[in-house]
Amino acid sequence: MSASAASLRHDWTLDEVRALFELPFNDLLFQAHAVHRQHFDPNRVQVSTLLSIKTGACPEDCKYCSQSGHHNTGLDKAKLMEVQKVIRAAAEAKAIGSTRFCMGAAWKHPSAKDMPYVLEMVKGVKALGLETCMTLGTLSREQTRALAEAGLDYYNHNLDTSPEFYGNIVTTRTYAERLETLAHVREAGMKICSGGILGMGESLDDRAGLLIQLANLPEHPESVPINMLVKVKGTPLENAEDVDPFDFIRTLAVARIMMPRSHVRLSAGRSEMNEQMQALAFFAGANSIFYGERLLTTGNPEAEKDMRLFARLGIRPEEREEHADEVHQAAIEQALIEQKNSALFYDATSA
Ligand code: SF4
């Protein structure tokens, strides 16, 4: 373990985290921003694109989710997308500046029948020179190994909230199962993307509890998405109370302090935040966004609007070290040629 990795803490207590949340707003932000500057260029934000590769009819009952088969949200369902369509969408994401391509499927877990297609998607997207990320539900040890061998860089599996509050939100999958999937992902050598959602009726201690679970994992997740609940009509949380915007920023800042080397992602719910709030979020330590794409099935601001905001704030997208060998170059060119023949960037409803 490197010296800097050894200095990361994995023993946060509830009292300590409560104390951070209770700091005066400016003191907390100052501290979070100082930590951020120690570990990152504060004027760089990592940009990912998210594609729903299989939409709706999910057997899980997550109360916040428009894709759960348990809720009547009127969502257009779509079966697993064709591999070539996914690769085309990834090429377009790269062309508009994304460095990571995240593919999400509304499953309890991937089936044996679907795995070969999923592995082909990973290989194809990777060959474009993009970082790859997937979220497919619970994974067995064998599945994580196969995904890692195919070249998957990140696996997203959110803890959602504290262990204490979790049962109010999801009953079809346990917290322990989630932790087990995260352990399999680590074992297979992949990076972890895991975070949670604010605005589901949780208490401040639940927010602290979520961050404690994430920070006290044997290694911090490389990516920590902090989502603001998007209240989808037809879900049990459609009338949930709004989160105080300052409490949302506080949570980002506390996450930054607790997991100083992780990318903290301003994730779902960003389209409902004004530009001033987003700027404050970047100051508090958020340094990753989804853009230029529909965020699974909820809205996300357009890429140009994001780029305009970046320009106004003097922020540049984080660059990825390119492996610009000939194979990758050829794959990129081929994908761009194919993409020109496609008028659609991505249409999850036509899979
Ligand atoms: S959050 Fe994921 S697992 Fe839960 S219902 Fe939605 S798609 Fe299914």
**How far is the first residue's CA from the last residue's CA?**
44 Å
From the helix content, strand content and strand pairing, which structural class follows? alpha/beta
The radius of gyration over CA amounts to 19 Å
Q: Name the hetero compounds present.
A: iron/sulfur cluster
> What best-fitting shape do the alpha-carbon axes yield?
globular
The average pLDDT is 85
Q: What fold name stands as the CATH topology?
A: TIM Barrel
What's the total count of β strands? 10
Please give the CATH class: Alpha Beta
Strand content: 5-15%
> What is the domain total for the residues?
1
Low-confidence stretches: 321-351
What fraction, in percent, of the residue positions are helical?
40-55%
Oligomer designation: single chain
Helix-strand pattern, N to C? HHHEHEHEHEHHEEHEHEHEHEH
Domain Radical SAM core: 43-261
Binding site for [2Fe-2S] cluster: 102, 133, 193, 265
Binding site for [4Fe-4S] cluster: 58, 62, 65
Organism: Azotobacter vinelandii (strain DJ / ATCC BAA-1303)
